[in-house]
Amino acid sequence: MWNKANGRLPNSLNAVANKKDYLARLQVTVSQLHNCGAVWRESVPVKEVFRGATLWNGDVEVFDLTGHPKAKRAFGWSHPDGVDNKTERFVTVLEIPPVDSPQTAVKMAIYSDIKQGKIKPVLK
């Protein structure tokens, strides 16, 4: 089971407590990773459940992009990572088919992490 799936950071790491700061850091991440401009559009709650296990339950941030050759939007979020979940990992996914929504962005990110061996698939 993916133990990094709750989508909510503990208070000691809670970047969401200061949403402006969190969105600014996520916006910079999107811009730098994808070499384009990014403007925050909205937060979308997403819950991803597979075989009865919640893999993700949290907000996905939607950004409108300028200057990207293929995508008009990107989706981003963060979650605890590292030893004892003491660090924060930012995840960004471009809106390029098959990704067409915050929900499919989360699914594709989970699939990518499983494929790369970063997480173990849910086996029930």
Topology overview:
Layout: H1 19-34, E1 37-50, E2 53-66, E3 73-81, E4 87-94, H2 102-115
Antiparallel strand pairs: 1-2, 2-3, 3-4
What do you see in this structure?
- With 124 residues, the chain is an alpha+beta fold.
- It has one domain.
- It contains two helices and four strands, in the order αββββα.
- The chain has helices at 19-34, 102-115, and strands at residues 37-50, 53-66, 73-81, 87-94.
- The chain has a four-stranded antiparallel beta sheet with strand order 1-2-3-4.
- Mean pLDDT is 85; it is low at 1-13.
Summarize the entry for a quick read.
The N terminus is likely disordered. With 124 residues, the protein is α+β, with helices and mostly antiparallel strands.
Q: Strand order of the main beta sheet, please?
A: 1-2-3-4
Number of strands: 4
Strand content: 35-45%
Assembly type: single chain
| Average pLDDT taken over every residue | 85
Helix content: 10-25%
Rounded to the nearest angstrom, the radius of gyration is: 14 Å
**Major sheet size, sense and barrel closure:** 4 strands, antiparallel
Order of helices and strands: HEEEEH
Task: Please indicate the count of domains.
Answer: 1
Low-confidence stretches: 1-13
Overall shape: it is globular
Task: Output the structural class.
Answer: alpha+beta
Which key features would you list for this structure?
124 residues; 4 strands; 36% strand
